[in-house]
Amino acid sequence: MSISRSLFLRRLIVLLIISVFTGSVCYGFDIKKLLFDYLVKPNAPIIEVSWRDLVQYDYHRKIIPPRLQSIEGKLIRVPGYVVPLLGDFGGDFETLEEFLLVPVYGMCIHVPPPPPNQVIYVKMHEPVEVEKLFDAVWVTGQLQIDVSELPNTDNLNYAPEGGFFLTGMEVEVYERDVSN
Question: How many Å separate Cα 102 from the centre of its chain?
Fold first, then answer.
């Protein structure tokens, strides 16, 4: 372990102990942001992922193809449509905290629901404002596959079953590059 990493961990432990007694923000530091920044490297490359990649996951047999194995735990950027679960949906802007990301507009509002390899459960690291909620978006975040293995799903508003989970960092309007 490098000295800088060791020093970071010691400072983080001290901040966590202090935060237990003072709340989640202490000395101007947001503990959740510190932890997220530590787990996801700020300069990590963002990998663009398509739904063609995601649907290759065989959720019945829990077979994760090599392409998906290589991006698990990494920062990805994926397009899709938002199905809101938790947030503030009034006024000019919608504030999203948790939502489902699907490849086709209108998915997840029908029975039977789409298969787990066609839904990403997104929990934003911090709530984000979106002006046009039902337009196509790009979502950037850290991907987890086979979320039936998530250790703490008690605080989630959606019960994922064997699909994808994304700790969201950014939501932006989808703009396709038509120059190619």
Answer: 13
- Asked if omega into 112 is within 30° of 0 (cis), the reply is yes
Mean of the per-residue pLDDT values of the chain? 76
CA separation for the pair 131, 95 (Å, rounded): 9
Q: Which domains does the chain have, with CATH numbers?
A: 3-39 (no CATH), 47-173 (2.40.50.870)
Distance CA 121, CA 144 (A): 10
pLDDT at 47 over 80: yes
Which residue is associated with the tokens 């920062």? 75
Higher pLDDT, 102 or 175: 102
Q: How many angstroms separate the CA atoms of 85 and 170, rounded? A: 17
The residue count of the chain comes to 180
Over residues 135-157, mean pLDDT: 74
* 137 C-beta neighbours (distance < 10 Å), count: 21
Please enumerate in sequence order all residues whose Cβ is within 8 A of that of 119, keeping only pairs 6 or more positions apart, or say none: 100, 101, 102, 107, 108, 113, 163, 164
Among the residues of the chain, which ranges form H helices?
Answer: 3-22, 31-39, 51-54, 66-71
Query: pLDDT at position 113, please?
Result: 77
